[in-house]
Structures
1.
Amino acid sequence: MLSKTMQDALNEQINKEYFSAYLYLSMSAYFESVNLPGSAKWMRAQHGEEQEHALKFFDYVNDRGGRVTLKAIEQPQVEFKSPVATWEMVLEHEKKVTASIHKLYEIALAEKDYATQSLLKWFIDEQVEEEKNATQMVERFKQAGEHPSTLLLLDGHFTKHGE
Ligand code: MG
């Protein structure tokens, strides 16, 4: 059985994962509005992935005999300064998520909750991947600069290959 502290923290994380999904969907809408459909597609896929993360925690809380409590999802930012600034925001956001996962792990360690530690190891590895991808996108878009033709070319790559 999950402790109350652990359960509350996991419920909080479910909300954070849904906020991530919502934020990335908002970014997808922004990229659509500036005619970068490849980036929009990427963000839409991220939206799906974040929902899967939320459901992974959802299932886990239930599997451990806990009680899931869903909270209101905060409104995400709607306007973004530029494509590069948006990717930089993704990286910053993923760093926050990493810190949040690490905090959960610290609670699981303190409570000697080995099952939760095991679940969180998957998320710790996943965050390494998320930060790596976001860093790559920031670098690529920085290289492309503000030139519409270069941006379109880079974006077109994501339309075709998805990454
Ligand atoms: Mg996530």
2.
Amino acid sequence: METNVIEEVFGTDVFNDDVMQKKLPKDVYKSWKKTLESGAELDSDIANVVAHAMKEWALEHGATHYTHWFEPLTGVTAEKHDSFLSPASESKPVLEFKGKELIKGEPDASSFPSGGLRATFEARGYTAWDCTSPAFLKEDAAGVTLCIPTAFCSYTGEALDKKTPLLRSMEAISKQAVRIMKLFGYDDVKKVSCSVGPEQEYFIVDHDMYMKRKDLIFSGRTLFGAPAPKGQELDDHYFGTIKERIAAYMKDLNIELWKLGILAKTQHNEVAPAQHEMAPIYTTANIATDHNQLVMETMKKVAKRHNLECLLHEKPFAGVNGSGKHNNWSIITDTGINLLDPGKKPHENTKFLLFLAAVIRAVDEHAEILRLSASNAGNDHRLGANEAPPAIISIFLGEQLEDIIEQIVRGDVSSSIQGESLDTGVHVLPVLKKDATDRNRTSPFAFTGNKFEFRMLGSSLSIAGPNFTLNAIVADVLQDFADELEKADDFDSAVKDLIKRTVTEHQKIIFNGDGYSDEWIEEAEKRGLPNIKSFVEAIPYLTTEKSIKMFERQNVFTKAELESRVEVNYENYSKTINIEAKTMIDMASKQYIPAVIQYTTSLAESINSIKAACPAADVSVQTELLTKCSSLLADAKKALVELEKVTEEAAEKPEGKEQAEFFRDVIFVKMGDLRAPIDELEMLVDEDYWPVPTYAELMFEV
Ligand code: ADP
Ligand code: MG
């Protein structure tokens, strides 16, 4: 019998538990597992045996190199490849991989952003094996490489990556949640982990067209482009039939992801033309983060094989729905209890209500840094612009939970609204049970059954930031809760009192209405909820007294680490806009303006020749077009000169806040001024003269 492709390929490129069980001597496997579960330091003898088994397995799969795979603050993963070759013999190659090479690496930290940490400390950086995320194989033109997930830190232990704070935050929330569980009598709970399922949106365009657009190549988004005659007004793409070429791509993508042990589950078309989504089944936050990085990388790699390009930018096309990422998050004990599962009668489920109250308070108290965690330059085109989701953080709970919260606040909680049956009116269809919580697509932070869905994330972002932020802020509240409840004489009444007090004080963050409406913006202001307009504006919240206190108390970041991240954020923003501005200057001066000159010249020549041939002929159409195009051309040239000037000025600004603000307030505005006349020209100029593929071609010809 033929085996199913999923069964055949799943996890074949992963050095997972199964492989370890087979490859390691029994006692080594046992002590390895013990180390993993207890979180203790790995014994060097064990590390040597594991490294040897890992090498043997990798060699069997054709690997020649290994790399410490890590996630620096650049936003993409980094790797430095070393071959297994050891200098032991001159005549015969000896392939070696020792425990210490598995555990520790020493890439040169000076080539990665450190936000000033390097200036005060040493240039040296270390990568340390994260044994909670399995090693895997990667195949490309360079051959097969064994990738070892690692954390990256400085000589003195400061985190220079995104994994380190994520791992710290997971420990923090586990520690506090275990304390709470103990109070509820669950002495068997030793560890609690956060589970994450990220839904990833992306665009696919044709590779040949992509190569003709410098803006896509350099900045990942179109910096010019008039709207296509058909946008997404018919909404016929959403869940629509998947085109053959895309279907072939998705099939290939799934196989590659399954090989890496990634549980790629759902795929469908998204709202915009050429836009799609992929969601894996949820897993531990740490692995989910590594997997999401691999998903993004694999999406791009597989696209190229199909002569396609995958765009992960938050807003590849102006005026068209952008791409985000939904971070589904829940807290689950090592005994299998989902602490965010309300059960059938949530009003009686005190444990659930306490964890719910903790999330409500955490999100209300730290909305600013949560907003920041979902932001980058690309997401500025979505958050708070005319697109989902709004920049104001609020929590959607749904009818059932909102009703319970109201009862708690009133002080007489006695019932839960139950889901009804859904009557389709067709008897051959099964009777469907309606969920007690409806969906609200306009909420940035929505309760969806047994998890929270953080919907603000930009599509290209690492999910590490949103998750270490969420874990840390919730851990911080749980710590307060545990401190208070451990001291209580009467636990039952103390916990009820705590829930009531917390939700009463923080209910302003709960909003079940339409998050896109103007009324909500006014209402949110009245409630005192922050409405942070841009990424740059959100950055300083990382180092407010409140944030520093919280992150330090949870051992997720030191003050110095936070300060360094502020710098890195400003730098990332400035660099991004700088590249965009320079690309615009390049395209306008070398492509658009010359093309329009050619077109207007041909118009002028045609007017002249018509007049010469027939002086009485009516050339008003041509003349009007020539006048209009020439005037827009002059506007474009003027805007180009302006943009060039301010881009030079920007380079002179002191790095950090001031420069980033200049990029946002001046450069970004001038970029719009240059774009406007050129987009208008695109609607007038003969398409044979237009130097780049249009929106219609990019979005509909895949
Ligand atoms: P949507 O309808 O919003 O697309 P789905 O129900 O398909 O949402 O789930 C989206 C994601 O949520 C998937 O990645 C799924 O694995 C994840 N998910 C489901 N349950 C949980 C949970 N308890 N914790 C974290 N993620 C979860
Ligand atoms: Mg979703």
